[in-house]
Amino acid sequence: MTHQAAEVAKRRTFAIISHPDAGKTTITEKLLLMGKAIAVAGTVKSRKSDRHATSDWMEMEKQRGISITTSVMQFPYRDHMVNLLDTPGHEDFSEDTYRTLTAVDSALMVLDGGKGVEPRTIALMDVCRLRDTPIVSFINKLDRDIRDPIELLDEIEAVLKIKAAPITWPIGCYRDFKGVYHLADDYIIVYTAGHGHERTETKIIEKLDSDEARAHLGDEYDRFVDQLELVQGACHEFNQQEFLDGQLTPVFFGTALGNFGVDHVLDAVVDWAPKPLARVANERTVEPVEDKFTGFVFKIQANMDPKHRDRIAFMRICSGKYEKGMKMRHVRTGKDVRIGDALTFFSSEREQLEEAFAGDIIGLHNHGTIQIGDTFTEGEALGFTGIPHFAPELFRRVRLRDPLKSKQLRQGLQQLAEEGATQVFFPERSNDIILGAVGVLQFDVVASRLKEEYKVECSYEPITVYSARWIDCSDKKKLEEFSNKAVENLAIDGGGHLTYLAPTRVNLALMEERWPDVKFRATREHH
Ligand code: G4P
């Protein structure tokens, strides 16, 4: 195996999907503890600010330094290199989250054992299913009272439409939580409370049918053995191929707070989850072990210092190798750029890496030229696909406080739209500016960033738009006819695309029926 192929094979790139409060932050911390990226848990600043009311957003902005370095975390585990991508924690399901999930090869689903499958879990699983992303599951908070584990697995299967294969099975919960039993390999991993903040030795009891196991389970022993019979009869067995196809999820139990079980899921990611996968571009499929460098930008984030308007573009490497100082072609602009100061996210006592491979994420300093979805290569004209915009569901008309600032407003909105913070529409028939968002928090974020970064104050007015659809039509004449008829509801979006702003659901349905040659698209690929 070449050095490059070996490096690719070592990599695992994944994200955590969960409903707020299920324990994502706590698990992230424990993962970093295991990757020796931090010595003691509790040192990672919680990203709870995301959850606060919108008035706290400026405070959030001040803390961006933290969220930037934690939005991608790279650490070694066993003989592997793990890239953990943080999915944004906004209250609203955001496009950013979706795009982050396009940059991973697998995901870790975390459920609160007391609650089970929650709304955000469902939304995120829907996104994962679009690409059949393999999912490892972790049922958290076993140190509390949890729901019947069998019922939880049934819920995963029924609601999320994925087979659930328990790998471990919990022995009690809350004060009686005694650890987990490994179903296939017949051993108990013993839980001892009070070691949540450090790496500890794992205590194992070989074989359930042993005196030691009987002593450990005490009065619960017989009931547990009975339950296991039921579980083994009723549950799916783990199957590697079904897991890789996104049809089956291995399920683990534990407590992130108690630092128990998180290592089992990390082992599962390393042992079972795929190494960096091939990526589809418009022109061809790109293999991770190809010599030449390729990558795509899936996220742009404002930097710590809003005054400089410096932003970081996060790029997933799809093939080849990044080396400090290398030259890359920015395919959309056709320009060659030398990249000497890309950020890598190796978060350990060891030194920063100077090279990166497929599966890794690097951060490029962006002064407004890089857009989400952009592809970089060593010269080949490639465009990676699958990083779409979504039709927004919420709309506001922007009202400018100082009319003389309309140029700054347009410029600001254009840039924020490029970054993916909002979508902007310019109606054909008026001078209005309409903002579209997938989640309501986005509007406040945009207003406060316009004020801080562009010195423009604006407010919002309600507007009756039900949804937006990107218009596509190969028949020029039909398109013209349609454009004339529908002009009142047509707009150009921030990327220059013709968009239909439907006032109501009924109107949209009618228009789609009336204009069968016109495509009303709910998603749009970048470029
Ligand atoms: P999130 O990022 O998914 O939103 O969840 P986070 O890790 O912040 O966890 C949400 C709450 O659940 C936190 O409590 C956290 O301490 C708690 N938690 C996480 N894992 C476990 C677990 O295994 N057992 C128990 N009992 N609690 C767990 P909080 O009170 O909201 O915050 P904090 O003030 O304790 O940090």
Features:
single chain, 527 residues, alpha+beta, Rossmann fold, Alpha-Beta Plaits, 3 domains, 8-stranded antiparallel beta sheet, 7-stranded mixed beta sheet, 15 helices, binds guanosine-5',3'-tetraphosphate, cytoplasm, GTP-binding
Itemize the secondary structure elements and their pairings.
Blueprint: H1 3-10, E1 11-18, H2 24-34, H3 57-62, H4 64-70, E2 72-77, E3 80-85, H5 95-102, E4 106-112, H6 119-130, E5 135-140, H7 149-160, E6 163-166, E7 168-171, E8 179-182, E9 187-190, E10 203-206, H8 211-217, H9 221-234, H10 240-244, E11 248-253, H11 262-272, E12 279-280, E13 285-286, E14 294-302, E15 311-319, E16 321-323, E17 326-330, E18 335-339, E19 355-357, E20 361-366, E21 375-377, E22 388-390, E23 394-400, H12 406-419, E24 423-427, E25 434-437, H13 441-454, E26 458-462, E27 467-472, H14 476-485, E28 490-493, E29 498-502, H15 505-514, E30 519-521, E31 523-525
Parallel strand pairs: 1-3, 1-4, 4-5, 5-11, 6-11
Antiparallel strand pairs: 2-3, 7-8, 8-9, 9-10, 12-13, 14-15, 14-21, 15-20, 16-19, 17-18, 17-21, 22-31, 23-25, 23-26, 24-25, 24-28, 27-29, 27-30, 28-29
The structure holds guanosine-5',3'-tetraphosphate (G4P).
Guanosine-5',3'-tetraphosphate (G4P) is lined by residues 18, 20-26, 140-141, 143-144, 255-258.
Structure description:
With 527 residues, this protein is α+β, with helices and mostly antiparallel strands. It folds into three domains: 17-55 and 106-272, 3-Layer(aba) Sandwich (Rossmann fold), CATH 3.40.50; 279-377, 3-Layer(aba) Sandwich (Rossmann fold), CATH 3.40.50.300; 388-525, Alpha-Beta Plaits (2-Layer Sandwich), CATH 3.30.70. Helices cover 28% and strands 29% of the residues. The protein contains 15 helices and 31 strands. Strands 26-23-25-24-28-29-27-30 form an eight-stranded antiparallel sheet. The chain has a seven-stranded mixed sheet with strand order 2-3-1-4-5-11-6, with helices on both faces. Strands 18-17-21-14-15-20 form a six-stranded antiparallel sheet. Helix 12 packs across helix 13. The longest helix is centred in the middle third of the chain and has 14 residues, at 221-234. The chain is globular and about 80 Å long. Mean pLDDT is 87; it is low at 42-69. Bound molecules: guanosine-5',3'-tetraphosphate. Guanosine-5',3'-tetraphosphate binds next to helix 2.
